[in-house]
Write a structure and sequence with these properties.
mainly alpha; 60% helix; five-stranded mixed sheet
Amino acid sequence: MTAHTEIDEVQGAAQSTARTEKSTTAPPEQDSTGLSPFAGRWAGAVAGASGLALLLVSTRYGFQGDELYFLGAGQHLSWGYADQPVLLPLLARAIDAISGGSLFALRLLPALLTVAGVLVAALTAREFGGRRRAQLLTAAAYGFAPAVLISGHALSTMAVDLFLWTVVNWLLIRWVRSRDDRLLLWAGLVTAVALQGKYLIVGYWIVLAVALFAAGPRELLRRRTLWIGAAVAVVTSVPGLIWQAQNGWPQLEMRSVLDAEGILGGRAGFLPYLIVLSGGVFTVVLVYGLIRLLRSPDFAPYRFLAWTFLGLTALFLVTGGRPAYVVGVFAPLWAAGTVALEGGGGRRWWRWLASWPAFGVTALVTLALSLPVYPVSQVTKTEQPENNPLSAETLRWPHLIDAVEKAYDDLPADERKRAVVVTQYYEEAGAVDYFGADRGLPSAYSGHRGYWYLGAPPDSSGPVLYVGSDVAKLKPYFSRIHKAATVAGGEGESYVDGVPVWVLDGRREPWSKIWPGYGHLS
């Protein structure tokens, strides 16, 4: 590319950006940037409503399985884990220590990230030239979309990823308009934080780079500050990558594991569930925003965002990823849709869909389908577990601990001192470790995913309380085995109804020989 071509490309982008501002906004007032003022008070009200909804139900039902895993992993801090880097276990341990075990405190962070994400989404609409209405509609779509509410309810990698990806998108959009290279350095720093929570953002940057090369502005890829930020992100990830290398790169194996699990219908359910996650009327606005980014001359400088969304969707669909992996690029699509509608785009019925009554009804429906608002006895009789599978997972722990405690109490006193708990799945191990301590239960171990890497039971241990139906894998290593208890499924607790607790005794080999072949990611 010649120097003149590069100059023309920059000038064309600037002129197109100017056309966007003139054609889609024409605001009565503008600040020094040439944009409409940020509707911070109104966007803050929307963000506050979303955050309040999350906090009001934050302690209903109970801990989610991954939260218990993070708490367990946090007691074994390491630079890496089989299925994630260090950030979430570190956060879980710190919050738990400061709050004294408060579930509300654990879920305050994802709620605050959601509130902040709503504001960044509104700012994204402003960068596209949106006035107050577009900013507020974008904030509402973000704040009450099922994907955002589900991730904001519990401490999860998705909650962190969604917010950080939204920030990165906003920084890139702002750079396209302002050419302020400091924004690219900030994008690198935000990426460095995201890499401590999940490695998924690497895929985002790869697809984004291809989209930028194909659709422009290619100049972004040549900015020195972008590569300085990338270097910072890589350097801060080195300890976690060393851990992965030392342990056989289990993170790479997780892709095939998740694909084989076929959660939410697998590949066949990917696109339908992606529509569910974006949420009814909000889905219509998102699709309209995608179309405007692809076709409108006003949005030409930002077309790479549409191709990034499509590229990520194709990537995760082909590789067996989950629909939630694409949610981080929703905000620019909502913003483009609302800005276009605010400027008079779309058919009349499309514009009616982007009205406050339609958005309000959609928000109420998504709240009911995504958050724990039903009585425990009714949860599994509603559509919520299909829309938010994690909600039913928060119901199962009291009866599980009761069954383990019964089996433990039935052991002779001298055997109880040497007993250990081994569970089929990592969630059960996290539950026993977290809740069992107050009941005097022994530490829990599991061969499942990250818990296997936390260590094996000591060779000096005695009988095993095994929680799960798949006891066959351990059976050859013990001379005596019997069922000691069964989890009593209360109403709504269908995930662990009838799960057995076994007592295995007479171990034939030391755990140090059994454990290396016992781990499983699936």
